[in-house]
Amino acid sequence: MPPGHFQPPLTTSPVVTWAARAGIMWGVADQHEPEPGSNLPDKSRPADIVDAEVVDGDLVAAPTPAKPAQPADDAEFREFQEFQRFKQFREWQQAQGGDLAVPPPTGAQPAEQPKKPWWKTALGLLRYKFVRRLIYLLVLLLLLNYAYDYYFGSSSGGGNVTEGGGSALEDAIPVVATSPKQAVRSVYNGLRSDSPETACTLFSAEGQHQFAREHSAPNCTAAAQQVNSQITDPGAYANPKFGQDVIYGDPSAAEVLVLHCRVQVTGGPLLGTFKLSRQTDGSWEISAYSFQTSACPN
């Protein structure tokens, strides 16, 4: 050091003293802090590089919640809607306190429906217009056939003459009559036929003679042809209407009368009163004929 140069005193001690004081104060102030460097990242591992992009302007809006995916086709969409409605129904039923219907098992077969009765199936055909028209046509044809047979009669076919009535056919003259009414009806039926003389087979010999005399004819055949020429409606003439008291006498007796005044005839002349006799085989034969009888007033 050159002479006359003043060297200031060293000031290292105060610096050290303050540093030491600072360290002491640091340790007193934060005794629970971790040691310096304990929270530093590990320098032995390289830091991760983050690729970030700076976005200018407004904030990005939050994404809207995704809508449920639509079914692939209409069928799936309808099933989805039915499921939603069923789910809502179950929730409503639970809220009402009702019992839930247990769905059938997935693999179970549906119960077989009972077959409809045949008459319901037949009535179901009436839904179709052409079926109804066929029925109307059939009914109309039946009515026309009945009306034609009633007013004009029929000149062909066969059948038996019945005691209950109905249009008799011209060749339905029985060989024997089983009742007085049947015998008289067969006479009317035979007279309107193309062979009116067949009616004479129902008379006895005396009955044929009286029938010819009452009609001013030489014999029964001529009398039958004469009556046939006066018939205007063969069908109606073959179906005379008998009153309840047309039979005069005991039906169980051997002889009875069929009174002409208790018979209604249309389509031809009214015949006289017939006297019938019971035969040994139970049949009835016309044994007498006259236009005048005490049981019928003139």
TrEMBL record:
This is Uncharacterized protein.
